[in-house]
Structures are given as structure tokens and as C-alpha cells.
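Practice problem. Given the sequence and the SMILES for manganese (II) ion, write out the predicted structure.
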Amino acid sequence: MTFIAHFTRNASGRDYAVGDIHGHFSKLETALMAIGFDTAKDRLFAVGDLIDRGPQSTQALHWLQQPWFHAVRGNHEDYACRWQTVDIENWRINGGGWFQELSLAEKETFAATFKTLPFVMEIETAAGVVGIAHADVPCQCWSDLATRLDTRSARDYCLWSRHRIRNKLTFGVDGVRALVVGHEPLPQPVVLGNVYHIDTRGWSTKGNFTLLDLHSLAVVASCALP
Ligand SMILES: [Mn+2]
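Answer key:
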């Protein structure tokens, strides 16, 4: 199993990253239209947590079928991968009630699809490789990552860790131009070293989706970098 997906440079269009979506695909579509996103040549890379909380979780499958949309696995997709053994009440509290209403076949389809999602994506840009993970990566050097991801605990770190953002650690990750993550809801994007935290609560009425241009590393929608 490959835990890292690699994408070559987009020669004709633009590449963006978006933070946690949590079942708010209509709102995301509005944000994409506002920046003139062109599905014929642009690409959108999601930091995971496509599902739960919002009303449109089931649309995640449709979005993942689009050739211009790519995502890493978030901890919420991981709940669905583990749906047969997960703590259902805990998941329900965290917005996963919709999943319990699905048929057995539908549950299996979601789980099978989410199991194909990588834990990390790396995207080539003119200025170097940009990495994407849901929460963080478990090592200081990008070149160590492929080996480190062999353990479940290291993969869980990608899904769950809030250590860097909670402690405002500024040393960044070596060997990669930038790392883009979500998971920790923030009022505006936060950059710590070369790590961009972009879950600006687009899934909440109080927030907006941040769209980060992966070539310029500029925020092109919703919230200006401080
Ligand atoms: Mn998350």
C-alpha cells in the first residue's frame, strides 16, 4: 500500500489546496466559482475531512470521482474506514450520524473508497514540492516520511496531531517547500515555519474556506494571511 501520492507539475492550470470541507460542498463550489476555478485545467487538493457535520457528506464520493479533485485521508474518513469497529457514539457526537443511516452496501462503498486515499500528497510546483497531510507529518525530514509511514502510529499522527499548532512550533519541515494541513479550526490561516494551517471553518457559518495557491503559496480566497 502506498501512503504517499505524488502529482507532477500542472503545466497548464493552477493548483489550490482547501481546508476541511465537512459536508459543505455547495459552499465550496461557490468559493471555487468566485476564483474562476477551471475544472478543465486547474486542480484542487483537499486536506481531508470531507465528511461529517455538514448536510452533504454523501457528495464526497462524487467529488472524489472528479479528475481535478484529490484528497488525503482525514480522521473523519478514517472513522468510515473503521466503521465496523469504531466507537459509534463518539463518531456520532463528531458529526458521523449520517453514516449510520446508510445501507450496508453504501457503508462498504464509502469505506472502500476512503481506504484508497493517501495519508500524504506531494505536488510538484515550479518552486519545489508542496506536501499535504490532514493534521501533520510525524518527522522532521520529508525524505524520512515514506519509511516512517509504515507504522500505524505514524499514520495516526498524520490524521490527528495538533502538537505543532497548539504549541506554535516554528521549525517547520525540512526537505519540502511547504506542508499544508487542516484539522485544527482557526479564525484565519496560520503559517508556522513552512507549515500552512488552513482549516478556517469553511464548514461553519462562522468561517470561510481558505483556498491556497500552491504555486505562489498565497491565499486567494476567504481570508488574508496575517
Ligand atoms: Mn480532522
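Check your answer against the key. The first helix runs from residue 25 to 34.
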